Amino acid sequence: MKKIRLSLLLPVIALSACRTGFDGNLLDNQAPDTHTVADTIIRFGDDRLESEVVVRWWGDDPDGVVAGYEFTFGDPYSLMADWQFTERQDSTFILAPPAGTDTLDFYFSVRAIDQEGLRDPSPATLAYPVKNSPPSVAFQPGLNQPVISFPALTFYWEGSDPDGDANLNGYEVVWNDTTVVPVPLEAGAGSLLLVADDPAITSMTCNMYVNASATPLATSLSGMQAHSWNKLFIRAVDQSGAYSPWTASDSVYIKPVQSNILLVNAYTTASNPTDFYGSHLVNNGFTVLDTIDLFETAGGNYTQQSADNLTQEKVFAMFDCLIWYSNSAESSLSLGQRTTSEFFDKGGHLLMSVYVSGSFDPLSNFLDFTPVSSLVSPADTTLLLEAGALLTPTDDAYPDLQATAIVGVVKPVNLQIGAAPVYEAALTAKDNATLTFSPWTGGAVVMARKPAAGEADFILSTLELQKLDGLLNMDDFFNKIMTDAFGY
User: Fold this and answer.
1) In whole angstroms, what is the distance from residue 401 CA to residue 390 CA?
2) What pLDDT, on a 0 to 100 scale, did the predictor assign at position 129?
3) Alpha-carbon span 448 to 328, nearest angstrom
4) Integer Cα distance of 216 and 220 in angstroms
5) d(Cα 488, Cα 286) in Å, to the nearest integer?
6) Sheet holding 84-86, edge to edge
7) Which residue of 65, 165, 254, 322 is 20 to 30 Å from 403, comparing CA positions?
8) 445-486 per-position pLDDT tens digit
9) What are the residue ranges of helices labelled H in 257-328?
10) Reading across the β-sheet that carries 152-160, which strands appear in turn?
11) Is 347 left (phi over 0), alpha (psi -120 to 50) or beta?
12) Omega of the bond leading into 216 within 30 degrees of 0 (cis)
């Protein structure tokens, strides 16, 4: 609506008191005026502004109100200018010079618009002399930092840009050789899981999972080398095409997968019964075996355990069979529960032999994925296995076993629905109040399997198998496990 500027005719009003209106002339609407906080910015060389700049402006209207603003970085007097509307009086812009240049003068123009849509015909214009700064990127540690690994690895990093993180355009990665064509990643990437498409060959191409995604990228990354030390190189790139220097990860020795069976040494002490398990498998014709030492440490860091559970799950899923042995049920069951889902989904078979200490929670949820629902823990009683005690199979096709040493704490098991017993032990009960000993007559299942019929996918023993070879027939036991239970 037009604003009216009034010129009052007082004598007319006095002589014509009966008139109710005013006399006046309608004036044309006047355009608003626009201002920026500075008229000129003079900077040269390295003193130029960073690419992220904050621009402020305001407007006034001599005969109305300012309803909004339009701004452009193009020629404000061109019919092709791209004007953007805003009601704000400030904004942050990333003024990135085009690829191949690191400096440029950006001309910013802004014009006020009044409530009738009239625009300032002479927009306020200010030149911003900008110098782009290169981005940076640095690798960050994972939960673990393996130095030896099968071909599934996760790397973490953080990238930044001194001109503002919005100026970061993405990353590029290569294996081992920075002269090859790199694979680009988006700016939001902060971790990368690399899994060999064929983990048995020497020169490997890896599927790429960004930020723990369940779906790999359409592109892959070649250049991982088995039987060799490997480094991942990464660099950041910004909106202007400026690159950070290449940054190298720590070296990791890549072991190829050489068999379908992985011996998982999960002992948390220097004890290492790998030879016991390996020799009995070799005696049954499984002559090529892979090994991993889950809790080996150097400098307080696990040397072979993967950077996180998702990566460890990818490692286990490379095998058909895991033979897992440990002196700590808690550490093994907690890790196994979080890292074997894909392994089982692919039809894997797991034999786990663990020592269950007296401090283990008998109702622990670490048992949820096993054949076991809970542990037998009688009140005020400790169950033990004496040297020479027999273990009797529930299936006559399996051999009797005999203890070769005293096991001071034994935890029999209660079974999950759908599970079945494999062995029961002749246990001794110690009354903790009277310190007297007697044969245990309660539940004594120390080895169980699931499912109950057909091929087993999981057999769990709460006694360490290397302590049960008193009859020197462990070859027979492994034969029944590998052929009858697992179907090899």
Assistant:
1) 6
2) 75
3) 18
4) 8
5) 10
6) 84-86, 66-72, 103-114, 124-131
7) 322
8) 999 999 999 999 999 999 999 999 999 999 999 999 999 999
9) 274-283, 309-316
10) 136-140, 152-160, 191-196, 203-210, 220-225
11) left
12) no
Tell me the domains of the chain and their CATH numbers: 4-131 (2.60.40.10), 136-254 (2.60.40.10), 261-485 (3.40.50.880)
Predicted confidence at residue 44, as pLDDT, reads 47
Q: How many residues does the chain have?
A: 488
* CA pair distance 433, 435, nearest whole angstrom: 6
Tell me whether residue 358 is exposed, middle or buried, using C-beta atoms within 10 angstroms of its C-beta: 0 to 12, 13 to 18, 19 or more: exposed
Q: In 3-state terms, what secondary structure has residue 100? A: coil
More confident of the two residues 334 and 272: 334
CA 279 to chain centre: 37
Cα distance from N-terminal residue to C-terminal residue, the chain: 90
DSSP-derived letter for residue 307 is S
State both tokens at 214: 């369940």
Over the stretch 396-437, which tens digit does the pLDDT of each residue have? 999 999 999 999 999 999 999 999 999 999 999 999 999 999
How many other CB atoms are found less than 10 A from the CB of residue 139?
Answer: 16
Strands 349-354 and 321-326 turn out to be parallel
In one-letter notation, the amino acid at residue 241 is: G
Q: Give CA–CA dist 277/283, Å, rounded.
A: 10
404, 426 contact by CB (below 8 A): no
Residue (of 19, 55, 16, 6) closest to 34 by Cα position: 55
Bridge-partner residues for 302, per DSSP? 297
Prediction pTM value: 0.77
Q: How far is CA 182 from CA 54, 203, 239, in A?
A: 34, 17, 17
Q: Minimal CA–CA distance to 461: which of 403, 381, 388, 380?
A: 403
Name the CA dihedral angle for 209, 214, 219, 221, rounded to a multiple of 10 degrees: 30
Element (H, E) at 248: strand 247-248
Q: What is the DSSP string of 173-233?
A: EEES-TTSPPEEEETT--EEEEEESSTTSSEEEEEEEETT-SS--SSEEEEEETTEEE-EE
Distance CA 427, CA 377 (A): 13
Residue type, 123: P
Q: What is the pLDDT of residues 8-67, one digit of tens each?
A: 333 333 334 444 555 666 778 888 998 887 544 545 445 455 667 788 999 999 888 999
